[in-house]
Write a structure and sequence with these properties.
The chain has about 375 residues and is α/β, with parallel strands linked by helices. Helices cover about 30% and strands about 25% of the residues. Helix 9 links the parallel strand 10 and strand 11. The structure holds pyridoxal-5'-phosphate. One of its GO terms (biological process) is putrescine biosynthetic process from arginine, via ornithine.
């Protein structure tokens, strides 16, 4: 299969990036900040009632964080290290939510001392830790959701608890002097089935009603997590369609009087802005008659492309060689045999692709630099430029 560049990037921006990139040693990522700026505006347009908490793990660069801060974003933070980073940029503690349900008590205390007052949880032990280390804070409980088969990068199972436990935790939160504030879920990253939000919102509605009736607790917030799409090879609906449908689901369950709605986008804001540039290191076949061609390039699973694990995320790859395509196995440069990006899914690459040619991995702005290893086989972490 062949990639049409225009489906992913406008030519002008691509050429600007390509020119900038021509004299650098590969691999490196170039991120176009204007694309992120536009994606943020599009999300706000789609969800005018929503508050955005950017999931910092998607791309924690100062350039991205500053841009989003200046656009008025809030931040979903997973560790004290991310916390220190955003505070250093002047983000206020009221703009921060500690969204990781797995955390040390002394780190909760550190968040509290810096002024953070909103915490996610999904277990009793964590809730009790929060009550001690961050007294009086707002609590939202993450519930388990379905949808792991239609998300390209599922985030279920490890996080969240069953509905009954979520309600018990919110009742306990009140007993412990905390503020039982809301419910969160994450339907899975790159979630292609919009219906996953319908099911999750339906569960939230039941919790809101039962807590009110049975315990007199009035919840005020729904955190709908991330999961919004980036533009990879496997097609998705447009963000606008996601927004329209999800808004309809919310209105069906909650009417016009919506609770506070939080969104935690990572991938959908950042991915499309990035182009990872690599170089072909070797093209080979395993025997004189082998039909299968191997293309080894200087970026791999350990230098930013870990989301190719199980070939989950299929990044569009573009080269400027024209002509006939032939299937290829695409692998990275390290001495680990897990470092194969695509083997089952057949990528067509130009038959005349040769050592030294550049490969452009599109839609790679998110979950690449932050996943890159430090020095496996001596290879440095993925370099990045922000333009
Ligand atoms: C990773 C993560 C997100 C971002 O998800 P995307 O699918 O990248 O938008 C949001 N919320 C939480 C709690 C996360 O862990």
């Amino acid at each position: 299969m062949s990639i049409k560049l225009e489906d992913y990037f406008d030519r002008e921006t691509f050429n600007r990036i390509k020119d900038r990139a021509d004299n650098h040693e590969t691999p490196f990522l170039v991120v176009d900040l204007k694309t992120i700026d536009r994606a943020y505006d599009e999300l706000v347009e789609g969800f005018p009632f929503g508050k955005i908490y950017y999931a910092v793990k998607a791309n924690p660069s100062n350039e991205v964080l500053s841009l989003l801060k200046n656009k008025g974003s809030n931040f979903d933070i997973a560790s004290i290290y991310e916390l220190e980073k955003v505070l250093a940029l002047g983000v206020k503690p009221e703009q921060i939510s500690f969204g990781n349900t797995i955390k040390k008590s002394r780190h909760i205390r550190a968040f509290y001392e810096k002024g953070v007052r909103m915490y996610a949880t999904d277990s009793e032990a964590d809730l009790r830790n929060i009550a001690k280390a961050a007294p009086g804070s707002k609590i939202y409980v993450r519930i388990l959701t379905e949808g792991s088969t239609t998300a390209d990068w599922p985030l279920s199972r490890k996080f969240g608890c069953q509905t009954d436990m979520a309600m018990d935790l919110l009742v306990l939160a009140r007993e412990l002097g905390l503020d039982p504030y809301g419910i969160s879920f994450h339907v899975g990253s790159q979630q292609r089935d919009i219906g996953a939000w319908d099911a999750a919102i339906g569960k939230v509605k039941v919790i809101f009603e039962r807590l009110k009736e049975e315990d007199g607790i009035v919840l005020k917030m729904i955190n709908m997590g991330g999961g919004f799409p980036a533009n990879y090879i496997t097609k998705t609906n447009t963000l606008q369609t996601y927004a329209e449908e999800i808004t309809r689901f919310l209105q069906e369950d909650f009417g016009d009087d919506l609770p506070e709605i939080i969104l935690e986008p990572g991938r959908s804001l950042i991915a499309n802005a990035g182009i990872l540039v690599s170089e072909v290191v070797l093209v080979s076949r395993k025997s004189h008659t082998a039909l299968e061609r191997w293309v080894y390039t200087d970026v791999g699973k350990f230098s930013g492309l870990i989301e190719t694990m199980d070939e989950s995320i299929k990044f569009p790859i573009w080269t400027d060689k024209q002509g006939e395509l032939e299937e290829a196995v695409i692998a990275g440069p390290t001495c680990d045999s897990a470092d194969i990006m695509y083997e089952n899914y057949k990528y067509g690459l130009p038959l005349n692709l040769a050592i030294g040619d550049r490969m452009y991995w599109l839609s790679t702005g998110a979950y690449t630099t932050s996943y890159s290893a430090i020095e496996f086989n001596g290879f440095p972490p993925l370099e990045a430029f922000y333009i």
